[in-house]
Amino acid sequence: MSVLLNRTKSFICTKSFCKSLLVRNYSDVPKKFKTFDEVIAQRREEARRSLVVQVNSESSFNELYNYCSTHATVKDVHHYKNFNDEHFMLMEFASEDNVKEVLQTCCFHQKDADIMASKSPFVWFRATPGNKNKYEATTKSLAVKDGNNKVDEDELFGNLMECHTVSDQIQMLYDKTKLNDVGIRLRFMLARQLEVMMSSLYANIAIYPFGSSVNGFGKMGCDLDLVLTNNVNYELLDTNRRLVYQEKKCEGGRSPWQRHMELVGTLLELRVAGAARVQKILNARVPIVKYSHELTSLDCDLCYNNMSGVYMSELLWLLGERDQRVRPLTFAVRRWARTVSLTNPHPGRWITNFPLTLMVLFFLQQRRHDGFILPSFNKLVAAAGKDDIRIAEESVNCTFLRDLNKLPADSSRSEDNLETLLYHFFEYYAQFDFQEKAISIVEGVPIRKPNSLPLYIVNPLEQALNVSRNVSFEECERLKMEVRNAAWHLEAVLDGKKTEDWGLLGLLEKQSTRGVKKLLRVGHNHRLVSVKDLFAEDEEPKRKTDQQIDASVKDIKNAMVTKKETKERQLKFKNTQVANEVYRIKRNKL
Ligand code: GTP
Ligand code: MG
Question: What is the pTM of this model?
Fold first, then answer.
């Protein structure tokens, strides 16, 4: 995460950068290592000092900055747009009190008597006509403009084409697609928004992001996993404090937390600005509430008391911090897996990003000719001290070393570059004995499979569980085939021919597919035309006047399914999605 904190500016693969890759000493551990807890605490504190203000446009900055400065000290302002092209300023103030002072100046919209405004760190800046020149131009400028923008795919592929080596391509992919500072800030703002809303109802609630939003393996636009948990605040447990809150017992047949999550879902529908399309999936063992947050264009999954998910994110983050090659390599593998449809945005009988990441970590634990890259999980457990003890729900022991500076130095660390590692990753799994062996980052070596499931990847925190138990025989066979294909592709690259599908390009998107997608990109913002845009009759597509929709696009349009068929598919898909989600949760907790 310190990588995420400190290296927020993506950079172009300049010659000097590429050169620095060659001389990079991969075994450098950052001198002053920040623990996951410290990073999360810092992000939460930053969110408490921040507000998200919807504005008319980017040029509202001067007025907003001056207006807020009359009440508080503004530290930094980050601009972003959501999917609806609406503009927002993420404002960081000097202190939490500053935020309170600014919020005290808030009012509610008076046009409609039925409006019941919510107290939240999401507000909007009202225009006052004729007031424009009241403020002088500030010398302060936006810290970031368009901070939530994903990299343009054509630009990305252009840059990858210009790289000199596959290692440069892998590093470039990581630098250009990883979740940036604004992306992380917004995720913590969403957690903050729920915490503010819930704090009026519960005395000891905390909401933490987990998963790819914080584990260092998240890309721009990744979903937000949130966990709502009882914050064990030791001050509140202090027996010298004589006054104790009365408790409200939750009665009724269903488990109390099912009912609380039902309430949370309803509150999201009624009281949380920006929350839309709320789905309550409560009959699963771990009830979850899914929603989309329109002010930030984020899809969120909120669950209750899944602290083992948070500790798992911490473990992944820690291993990513251990060596600079871990995250770029994982990004390349995850992106390749998406390209060849090994992973899919929707849950099913295929592998997902989390077990795939464990496969990369496991590969990096294997002995290379000049040493190891990552330690086994057992080594982290053996080095743990009493400050590292963490017990999650259902007594799951999540104790492992948190401070990497305390890990005994490696006698030898492999210096292989990213290109070699990616090739060997594919080669390793092309030869892996999936039939007999399980993948376990606990030992860092293949172990005997305890059952005959096609793919067995040990959950390091609950070692009796297989995190890939949903993967079907067919999907496992496809995995084996695709790693072989990828290894062949990279082997050809090592022969030196630089074609359109050179290096990583051929693994991420074949030139032929890139061509079609490029044709489908229209308009100034290079957004992909969705099927809905192409067929909408009742609603004018936003950019219907675009003359750039050339003949090729029309041909593609004609060849596509009819509107009726599309609607039927959408309907079916919605049901399947819910069913799959329930299945996934059941599966995860079996
Ligand atoms: P993307 O959302 O695909 O970007 O990756 P992700 O790492 O966020 O994966 P996902 O949203 O599926 O899961 C969120 C987090 O929950 C993971 O990072 C893990 O920490 C945890 N998790 C996911 N699946 C399992 C599982 O089977 N067992 C356990 N214990 N934890 C899991
Ligand atoms: Mg996720």
Answer: 0.82
